[in-house]
Amino acid sequence: MELSLSPQQREFAEQVREFVGARLPRDIADKVRRDQHLDREDHMRWQRILGEQGWHAFTWPEQHGGPGWSIVQRYLFEVICAEMNCPIIQPFGPRMAGPVIYTFGTDQQKQRFLPGIRDSTVWWCQGYSEPQAGSDLASLATWAEDKGDHYLVSGQKIWTSYAHYADWMFCLVRTSKTERPQTGISFLLIDMRSPGVEVQPILMLEGTHSFNTVFLENVKVPKENLIGEQDNGWTYAKFLLEHERVDNAAIGVTKAAMRRLKEIAASEHGDDGGTLMEDPLFHRKLVEVESQLQSLEVTALRILSQVAAGEAPGPAASLLKIRGTEIAQRISELASQAVGYFALPYQPDYLHDAGSETPVGPDHAATAANNYLWRRCMSIYGGSNEIQRGIIAKRMLEM
């Protein structure tokens, strides 16, 4: 889908292209293009460059130090960055913790925490899911005992993305027990260097490490790190989750994956000797997923426009999350099918850019299976797609 852009919007798009072309480190762009694993320093190096430009927190309004971009400008920025092989901006600070802090936090908390998020000098992680409270988040059991001027937090968080990189965690904890599980939950900010915090890795099937289990044992958290009111954390959690599910549509990244799929289909050959792009069956599959992506893009822009007008995304965010993850998974599935048996070798050195060994088969085949396997988690994180369907049935269809 092509937007009809005004002269000012075209000028903005060109400004973004020029900046990315001049400032994006080539080694990082090459890793992204080849679907190789990025480490903490890769992400932070690019995000600090964006922070110096004032673009790391690109969704923030001007009064909180953001660029104050319009919905179209944000969309253009994300799509262009994905097109030019920029790393995904890790959302935990600028898209999650930051908006909660500047919406519900105190002036002191804003002064303390927002600069590090804007500049990307501090990495955040999300302490929501627990072994018995994943999609049923309201059943969380991590307990924060009130000790007057501080809490003592004990419990376990799981599937905590990049906790091994994180400096801080925004965390849901239970501060009182009531009949209604949504009440009695509070929103705390926890320094990951605090005594009693232990991070254990959960290794992914395809050989990368992004998820973790976090154990909390009598972790001392000052009361000044409580966001909003005690026992009202569910309100802040819902605010964050609705915006997270809009982000999970990942239009820019998925459009970039779609372009790569077309390139693969144009270079790989089928049984009849022609390219997969010329194969009627494969071409039909490709066109189907591309049309679904275009429909998702229109819906995402409509919902983002509503958010820009001051409306909450509401249950429509669940629709974006479902379709966004399903389409991304389908694209990775087709890419693996396209490269055929070249997807079979496991090539960890190439995945981690750890050696000079030439990959088996074409470059685009070396990480096709890894990408396919990693994307299985997309329909689970951010609230499983089954839970999202329940939200749509209850709140939109009134079933």
Element order, helices and strands?
HHHHHHEEEEEEEEHHHHHHHH
- Record the strand order, biggest sheet: 1-4-5-8
- Give the uncertain stretches in residue-range form: none
Q: What level of helicity do the residues show?
A: 40-55%
* CATH homologous group name of the largest domain: Butyryl-CoA Dehydrogenase, subunit A, domain 3
Radius of gyration: 22 Å
How many β-strand runs? 8
Strand content: 5-15%
CATH class identity of the largest domain: Mainly Alpha
How does the overall form come out from the CA principal axes?
Answer: globular
Topology:
Elements lengths: L6 H17 L2 H8 L6 H14 L17 H13 L8 H13 L2 H13 L4 E4 L15 E4 L3 E9 L9 E7 L10 E7 L5 E7 L5 E14 L3 E2 L5 H15 L3 H17 L12 H29 L7 H24 L8 H4 L11 H4 L1 H7 L10 H11 L4
Helix pairs in contact: 1-4, 4-8, 5-6, 5-7, 7-10, 8-9, 8-10, 9-10, 10-13, 10-14
Describe it.
This protein has 399 residues and is α+β, with helices and mostly antiparallel strands. It folds into 3 domains: 83 residues, no CATH class; 108 residues, Beta Barrel (Butyryl-CoA Dehydrogenase, subunit A, domain 2); 148 residues, Butyryl-CoA Dehydrogenase, subunit A, domain 3. 47% of the residues lie in helices and 14% in strands. It contains 14 helices and 8 strands. It has a 4-stranded mixed beta sheet with strand order 1-4-5-8. α9 packs antiparallel against α10. The longest helix has 29 residues. The model has no long low-confidence stretch (mean pLDDT 90).
